[in-house]
Amino acid sequence: MNSDRRAGPSDVLRPRNVGAPIKRTEDPRLLTGNGEYTADRKPDRPLHLAFLRSGQPHARIARIDTAAAQAAPGVSAVLTAEDIADDFKPVIPFSRMPSYYATPIVPLASGKVRYVGEAVVAVVATSRYLAEDALELIDVEYEPLGAISRAESAVVDDAPLLHEAAGTNVLIAREFKKGDVAADLKAAAVRVGGRFEMTRKAPLAMEPRSYTAEYDKRRDGITLYTSSNIPGIVRDAVSESLDLPGHRLRVVAPDVGGSFGSKGSLYPEELLICITARKLRRSVKWTADRLEDVSSSSQAFAEVVDAEMGFDKNGVATSLQADVIGDVGAYSIYPWTCGLEPVQVVSFLPGPYKIGSYRGAVRGVATCKPPTGPYRGVGRPIATFVAERLMDLGARALGIDPLEIRRRNLVRAEEFPYRIASGIIWDKTGFIECLEAAAEAAGYDQLRREQAEARKQGRLFGIGIASYAELTGIGSRIAVAPGMPINTGSETAKITIDSTGAITAAFGVASHGQGLETTLAQIVADDLGARFEDVRVIQGDSDEVPMSTGTYASRSAVLGGGAAKHAAKILQEKIQRVASHLLEANADDIEVTDGKATVLGTDRMVTFKQIAKAVYSDMKTLPVDARDELSATYTYDPINGTTAAATHVAAVEIDPATCFVQVLKFVVAEDCGRIINPMIVDGQVHGGVAQGIGAALLEELIYDEDGQLLTASLVDYVIPSAPEVPVMNVVHVESESAVTGGFRGMGEGGTIGAPAAIANAIADALSPLNIDISILPMTPERVFQLMEKAKPKSKGNADE
User: Fold this and answer.
1) For the Aldehyde oxidase/xanthine dehydrogenase a/b hammerhead domain, which residue ranges apply (predicted)?
2) Does pLDDT of 245 surpass 80?
3) How many Cβ atoms are within 10 Å of 374's Cβ, its own excluded?
């Protein structure tokens, strides 16, 4: 896979570690089977959980008979909502948003069930096998209340209510406005629009959700090992729910086998396993099987967008309006709320473009499905899909090349900071630079010539472009989820040199595969003046820093890296002060590099180990007031965060016999600011694009009219394999952001841009047949149906 870096300001005097393609320090243990995941924990004589899950989409629980299960071999307890009612308080995903209803989060269904797969009864036994056997002995009587399988049917007047207290199935409604959209659309030279949809997706991490609650009798405390990327947020929520002080509840995210957002929320099972461990005073384990993971973990997308865009005669977009209905599933999620996904669709819909007037309205609607939650890209994949389809439709209507119409509409360098029509402010980022770099790397003009030749041969060859922008590393001034009351806009780093001279850097962020142990160590090593191999990074442990949150919203490099730089600088100054006494020199004349402090212009030096010994052990070397603990903690808040951007170019060919879409070429030009580790950045781009290919061509959770999931296994839910993922060319445009370190987030970008670029390429390939693309994934079946519909009907058929 090719990668190219365009020189930027950060290429001047680049430090030794930041910017270097250092191999990931995590990989040796992970590749040799020496990692430790939650399911690998081996507490003393643990009990095991199994859940009886609802087979009904929406029903009242009339009766539960657990007597036979309680008497089954190895069973320690059988728990229903009634059995644990006094052991917790419901967790409420609060929000300041108007027109929002917060559904309570409880460990087990109480009163009624709202989707197939919702946990109703928990069995605790000495093994998972015995717990599963006991599930078969439980008898639950349901009274069906009517399923709601689609968001459109949930808003009709006679639809059953999933949450009677809400009085409606619309759990969230928002609208963004700027200017007079109706007048501008009326005055437009060209108006283009349509109904666009991205269907439900499963995040499908390699490791299913897994929890181990280890009970400590000595302190009547619990350590929850969880496959989560928000251990600090989970700790605070469980502590509040169970009325368990934070010093008696430790939450650790060990090695985590991927998340893609699905492990970024509090789950009922996390509450239940802690309640069970506390109630039985025993350690308890649970790992989802694949069916449980697909059918009960949070899901993605599921929006329908009716949108229209107006252009003047020169191809400049003047106006945009959209009405969005989002299928948010049965519950809100904590802490992000059910507004996270659908509200961000209308927030980001104007994208990186200068659109004068805008109206975006959204409704998040409850249905009989698992909740929608964070998924790589959050709202922006479908927002980008819609905006980029409209750009291509406008280009076609005006006879302008798709590349040129974007040149005319993207925010340019001299126009930053730029407030888009929904109110989001982009800081100075390489919008145009990414567009031009992607076109150059793709050989755009040559691709068009190849397309013309392919069409002469009757081949269905298409080229698609997608440009997008996203907020990353968001600070305290902007809520990650609209109206969310908890602060997720800061991050803490604590760096310590112990009495042996060893360096430990602890962070609140939690890795689930991004290589944070490596990239954060690179930053610490450079800014502290240490050797990279001497830095140990700890993350994902709520006990390690005063306030731990986690990893989400492309924030780890921006916030974790910013905190690391500040803490490292404070600690370096302490090292200089101690070294000035030991070397009898002015602190300003001390240079700290490679794990030692040296007097400038001399060979007089002391190592970190010698400095640590002077501070902690040798009481005669330093005056009392110079024995400053070699530790520094810093909480960093970037206030607004920063903007990342990219342009994707895809070339595809459609086989008219099989209707399969083959991605022949894929180019990404992205601006993630100053690059910490180009090898890891490339890996994130490649993985994101692969996931975006799945969203564009293959992946779909299909529910029938009765709310039953029809694609609950990997036989039916299809993800990309190696043949579906092309060789990629990645170009890096490094324009440093104003945040500490000049970093921008980039972990979600591949998934944001790829679906739209592929959709535009498919539409371009099918344009000779007058076929348009408005729904993703564009599976072979959908391509076939579109091509059949487009075939001219014979007179005989017409007469019939």
Assistant:
1) 32-146
2) yes
3) 28
Strands (E), 217-356: 221-226, 249-252, 284-287, 300-311, 317-329
In tens, the pLDDT along 117-135 reads 999 999 999 999 999 999 9
* Sheet of strand 631-636: strand arrangement: 535-539, 503-507, 491-497, 631-636
CA 626 – CA 551 distance, rounded (Å):
37
Across all residues in the chain, what is the average pLDDT? 94
Q: Which residues contact 653 (CB under 8 A, 6 or more apart)?
A: 454, 459, 460, 461, 462, 661, 662, 664, 765
Contact between 754 and 580 (Cβ < 8 Å): no
Beta strands across the sheet bearing 59-65: 112-113, 59-65, 139-144
If phi over 0 gives left and psi between -120 and 50 gives alpha, with beta otherwise, what is residue 353?
beta
Q: Which residue has the higher pLDDT, 624 or 185?
A: 185
pLDDT score of 143 more than 70: yes
SS3 790: helix
* Residue closest to 641 by CA, chosen among 553, 525, 528: 553
66-85 tens-digit pLDDT? 999 999 999 999 999 999 99
Nearest CA among 792, 776, 698 for reference residue 301:
776
Distance CA 74, CA 48 (A): 10
- The three-state DSSP-derived secondary structure of 302-335 is EEEEEEEEEECCCCCEEEEEEEEEEEEECCCCEC
Query: Identity (one letter) of the amino acid at 164?
Result: E
> What does DSSP assign to residue 264?
S
Q: The whole model's pTM is what?
A: 0.95
CB-based burial of residue 792 (10 Å sphere; 0-12 exposed, 13-18 middle, 19+ buried)? exposed
Residues 6+ apart with CB under 8 A from 208: 227, 287, 288, 289, 290, 292, 293, 297
**3-state class (DSSP) for residue 206:** coil
CB 73 within 8 A of CB 302: no
DSSP-assigned beta bridge partners for residue 665 = 651
Q: What is the set of domains in the chain, with CATH numbers?
A: 38-146+208-256+263-296 (3.90.1170.50), 378-477+641-785 (3.30.365.10), 491-636 (3.30.365.10)
Q: Residues 208-224, buried b or exposed e (16+ Cβ, 10 A)?
A: bbbbbbbbeeeeebbbb
Residues sharing a CB contact under 8 Å with residue 480, sequence separation 6 or more, in sequence order: 336, 340, 474, 488, 489, 552, 553
Q: Helix or strand or coil: residue 174? A: strand
Strand 170-178 with 190-201, pairing: unpaired
- Residues 174/178/182/185 CA torsion (nearest 10 deg): -120
Task: Give me the residue label for tokens 């602190």.
Answer: 587
Residues 6+ apart with CB under 8 A from 378: 261, 340, 341, 344, 553, 748
Examine residue 417 and say whether the peptide bond preceding it is cis (omega within 30 degrees of 0).
yes
Q: How far apart are CA 482 and CA 729, in angstroms?
A: 35
297-348 pLDDT, tens digit each:
999 999 999 999 999 999 999 999 999 999 999 999 999 999 999 999 999 9
Closest by alpha carbon to 552, among 284, 234, 794, 286?
A: 234
Q: Name the one residue in this structure whose structure tokens are 């199935």.
A: 169
In which residue are the tokens 């697909």 written? 294
* Number of H-type helices and E-type strands within the chain: 20, 30
- Classify residue 281 by burial, with Cβ atoms within 10 Å: 0-12, 13-18, 19+: exposed
What is the DSSP annotation of 586-649? -GGGEEEETTEEEETTSS-EEEHHHHHHHHHT-TTTS-GGG---SEEEEEE--TT-EEEEEEEE
Q: List Cβ neighbours of 28 (8 Å cut-off, separation of 6 or more).
A: 34
Q: Return d(Cα 576, Cα 592) in angstroms, integer.
A: 7
Q: How far apart are CA 306 and CA 655, in angstroms?
A: 30
713 DSSP β-pair partners: none
